[in-house]
Amino acid sequence: MTDVLPLAGFVIGITAARRADELGALFVRKGATVRYGPAIRIVPLADDTELRSATMRLLEDRVDVVVATTGIGFRGWVEAAEGWGLGEELLDRLGKSSLLARGPKAKGAIRAAGLSEDYSPASESNAEVLRHLLDSGVDGQRIAVQLHGEPLPYFVDSLRSAGAEVIEVPVYRWVGPSDPGPLDRLLDGVLDGSVDALPFTSAPAAASLLAVAKRTGRLPGVVGALEKRVVAACVGPITAAPLAALGIPTVQPTRSRIGALARTVSDALEARSPRLTAGGRSIELRGQAALVDGQWCDIAPAPMAMLRALAESPGRVFSRRELVSALPDGGEEHAVETAIGRLRSSLGTPKLVQTVVKRGYRLAVDGG
């Protein structure tokens, strides 16, 4: 048997805008096929009137505290200010404030700008930064919070409730994709069974995908696929929130890093790959393919749906009506017959799928 890469046969859908190629490369390296369907796009910093407006507001008066939540966001903010001719003024204002860094990357960006942080929690969590601020007392203080792609309503509202004036600095805002075509095709893949996993790196991407599905009448089907067959993986609980709100289960890495996310997806897919024996042959299902006694078999979505259904209970007879419900697009019983015929051809061993007259189909029993 030829060595098979861990994710060979699986198709991964990438919805990210930033670092999409980097994430996709991690899956390709493991043998997966990657399909890109960006669910969001980033507003260019130089064109972002909201970011410039927040920066001007910050420069109007003293700032007591500045919270840097991400390294790339803090660097982008400084670079954008330099492009507007406000770089030196911004750095001067930041240098006179108390700088708080959420994690090591934000801390590194602060230092790279020639500044130094006053506090950074070991947990790398916004919650601990907020607790530090509230414990220190913020009544009457002017605080700037550098956001990254999404609002932090609880964080900001808590500071305002404690008496602070808060300036939200929206770096890298997300909006819908300029070309919705790739995302539409990715959603079709989720529905027709040709996509096996969707890793998400941001809550806006997850929310945007669900919004497009709802707007195009595909939300029930997409939710059903994510509940049962397609692995929904999120880099952390904030990213998972839009999916959790619809009851969609997700897998998450212990650390919020894309490398850890890729490993989590790989582990989840391998755990969901049935290995069984039928008719004296070993069968391993691998997304859009199967290994039969170590031989590679590419299988189209409809036949693969039949094999997945039959593999749930090897030897049991499944009626045509039962198998209709397993087809990606449903259909009539003749669609089951067509898919079973194609499955037999793909497996190269027609007798692995047996017809039980007037009852339906089953995987061959051992010794059969």
Descriptive account of the structure:
By secondary structure, the protein is α/β, with parallel strands linked by helices. The protein has 15 helices and 16 strands. Helix content is about 45%, strand content about 20%. α9 runs parallel beside α11. The longest helix has 15 residues, at about 335-345. The chain is elongated.
Helical coverage, percent range = 40-55%
Q: Let me know the largest β-sheet.
A: 4 strands, parallel
Radius of gyration: 26 Å
Low-confidence stretches: none
Number of strands: 16
Which structural category fits the helices and strands?
A: alpha/beta
The percent range for strand residues is: 15-25%
Q: What is the count of DSSP helices, taking H or I runs of 4+ residues? A: 15
* Strands in their spatial order, largest beta sheet: 5-4-6-7
Distance between the termini: 23 Å
Mean of the pLDDT scores?
92
What would you call the shape? Answer: elongated
State the gist of this model.
This protein has 368 residues and is an alpha/beta fold. Helices cover 44% and strands 18% of the residues.
List keywords for this structure.
single chain; 368 residues; alpha/beta; four-stranded parallel β-sheet; four-stranded antiparallel β-sheet; 15 helices; elongated
Strand-helix topology:
Blueprint: E1 11-14, H1 20-29, E2 33-36, E3 41-42, H2 49-59, E4 65-68, H3 71-83, H4 87-95, E5 98-101, H5 104-112, H6 126-136, E6 142-148, H7 153-161, E7 165-171, E8 174-175, H8 181-192, E9 197-200, H9 203-215, H10 219-228, E10 231-234, H11 237-244, H12 258-271, E11 275-278, E12 281-286, E13 289-292, E14 295-298, H13 301-311, H14 320-326, H15 333-347, E15 353-356, E16 360-363
Parallel strand pairs: 1-2, 4-5, 4-6, 6-7, 9-10
Antiparallel strand pairs: 3-8, 11-12, 12-13, 13-14, 15-16
Helix pairs in contact: 3-4, 3-5, 9-11, 13-15, 14-15
